[in-house]
Amino acid sequence: MALPVVVEKGAPVEFWNWKPGMRMRRGVWNIPIPLEREVLTPEALIVPLVGFDGDLYRLGYGGGYYDRTLAAATQRPFCVGLGFAEARLACIFPKPHDVSDGCDRG
Predict the structure, then answer these.
(1) Counting CB atoms within 10 angstroms of each CB, which of 15, 17, 42, 54 has the fewest?
(2) What is the DSSP letter of 70?
């Protein structure tokens, strides 16, 4: 398991090894991150959805971190979006820089 870690604002996130009970510290925006940096390359991601549409575009929290991360990936991980059915929209109206996450429907 790994947690997404913002190492630099405006850059792709890194995924750091995480195990239950391990020591944590505060990262960017005071989000807890593992105390030690051990970068992993994930095969699959659970991606948060604030909103989503039928073309597999998503609304996140506005920072563009997952778009940058997926665009920079040498091997794209399998993505599963996690959100509420009420968050489904007719269209996200994606911009050219947006990445269709390929999140599974359901």
Answers:
(1) 54
(2) H
Name the DSSP class of 87.
G
Return per-residue pLDDT of the chain as tens, 106 residues.
999 999 998 899 999 999 999 999 999 989 999 999 999 999 999 988 899 998 888 888 878 888 889 889 999 999 998 999 999 999 988 777 666 654 444 4
pTM: 0.80
Give the span between the Cα atoms of 93 and 84, in whole angstroms: 19
